[in-house]
Amino acid sequence: MQSLGTSQTAQELVHVAVVRKVRPGREAEFEAEIARFFGAAAEAGANGAYLIRPILGTRSREYGILRAFRNREEMKRFYASDLYRQWSETSGSLVEGAPNRRELHGLDIFFQEPGKTPPRWKMAIVTYLAVTPAVYVFSRLVPALFDGLPGPVAMLVVNICVVASLTWILMPLLIKAFGRWLQAKKNDPDS
Question: What distance in Å separates the CA atoms of residue 157 and residue 77, rounded to the nearest whole number?
């Protein structure tokens, strides 16, 4: 992963994920061009950028680019800039199709269907439905199983169990169960 430094706190930043599919045999050229682009973007005031390469040994040609901006206005200026326009022209012969670009928010990791991120209020409801039983169960189960654990250690174990259950069990199940509702359009009666 190649990165460009960052100096802002996460709460102030706007994060954008971009996926590009590189043409066969053009991967090295793409990486060289993006390294130059990251350097130019740093000089132009970009706050952070990361290149995520395909996993070695796979046939994937999809590269991820994560960008951080100080605020929404800076993001808009960046994507409207001559620098970005020149990068788009330069990279056009190296990639297939248009960039798949979307803003990332804290809950988006669970709702990853490209271009179809549900409204935040729907993500919050589904997350609440997963967090509530997980916290209730593990805050009772851990002290019962590990009687005598110091409070901070018990809380650490409870939180590990909650996060693990959300990541691998509860959120995937709820996303599947509420999938139609999460992806419903605004004028859809089910939304």
Answer: 44
Mean pLDDT score across all residues of the chain: 81
State CA 154 to chain mean position distance. 30
Q: In the predicted model, what is the mean pLDDT of residues 79-89?
A: 91
| Residue 124: predicted pLDDT | 87
CATH code for residues 2-104: 3.30.70.100
All CATH 3.30.70.100 domain ranges in the chain, comma separated? 2-104
Q: Give the residue from 17, 111, 106 showing the smallest Cα distance to 64.
A: 17
Region label for 53, one of left (φ > 0), alpha (ψ between -120 and 50) or beta (otherwise): beta
